[in-house]
Amino acid sequence: MTDAMTLDSYLAAGGVLTNPTNVPPRYRAELMKLMATFVDSELAGAAGFADVINQGPGIKERIAAAKIVLEKTDHADRVLKIMGEFGADTDRYATHHPWTARLDRDADVGAVRSEHDMRLAVFNYPISGWTDAVVMNLLMSRAVAEQLAEFSTVSYQPLAEAFRQIAPIEAHHGELALEGAVKLVENGESQDMQRAVDYWWPRVAVSFGRDDPKRFEHLKSLGLRHRANTALRERWTQAAGAALKRLGLKPPS
């Protein structure tokens, strides 16, 4: 950044920040919110999926589920360490929130976050059995892929690098979900799978949030966003729809 440039113009031009000491308060607030949403969602997602590990139909499936839980927890830890550099109490963080807490399955909260933490609203809903878990992971993994592609270009370089390292591991979770889904189809579970799709599709879709042009432009000026929520959701719709088509399933009408 040259002496003649303001921080705003530097970030708007694609500049990056590399440590907490040169981060202004309003940038810090938005960055912490982004990181908290990711960490809380990973921990809540891992906690929910942990409950169904032993419902896997075989050892291989249970190993895959346990691997997903372990890696999501590790991803939360990676980003939490960056939050710690900004003063977050990392030792207290993981045990302070009720990560296993869920609402009733038929609750309708839209995109509203939990009162306890910053998890995406989709992680407020309980998973109901193995088939439900596989379908939820199949759909959500495609959403995570779009979100991480966006977050991997944020202007805080250490966080962008962390997300770039996390992205291929999360992508593999999607591959495991597809593998599990194929087996379920082969075992005649298509009807239950379609019911799970009908349940989870709108709940995953709403996790992208509504477009707020003013807020988007603010985050874009800070280098923390590049594509609007609608664009991310449309990309997810195409990717998730293609995965369902391979399985003989379809999005709800």
Care to give the gist of this entry?
With 253 residues, this protein is mainly α. The chain has helices spanning 7-12, 25-50, 59-85, 90-96, 129-151, 157-186, 190-205, 213-221, 229-246.
Structural commentary:
By secondary structure, the protein is mainly alpha-helical. The chain has a single domain, classed as Ferritin (Up-down Bundle), CATH 1.20.1260.10. 64% of the residues lie in helices and 0% in strands. The chain has nine helices and no strands. Helix 2 packs antiparallel against helix 3, helix 5 runs antiparallel to helix 6 (157-186) and helix 5 packs parallel to helix 7. It starts with 6 loop residues before the first helix and ends in a 7-residue tail after the last helix. The mean pLDDT is 92.
Q: Please work out how many helical segments DSSP would assign.
A: 9
Write down the CATH class: Mainly Alpha
What is the chain-wise order of helices and strands?
HHHHHHHHH
Number of strands: 0
- Category by helix and strand content: mainly alpha
CATH superfamily: Ferritin, core subunit, four-helix bundle
Unreliable stretches, pLDDT < 50, 5 or more residues?
none
Strand content: under 5%
Amino-to-carboxy terminus distance: 50 Å
Major sheet = none
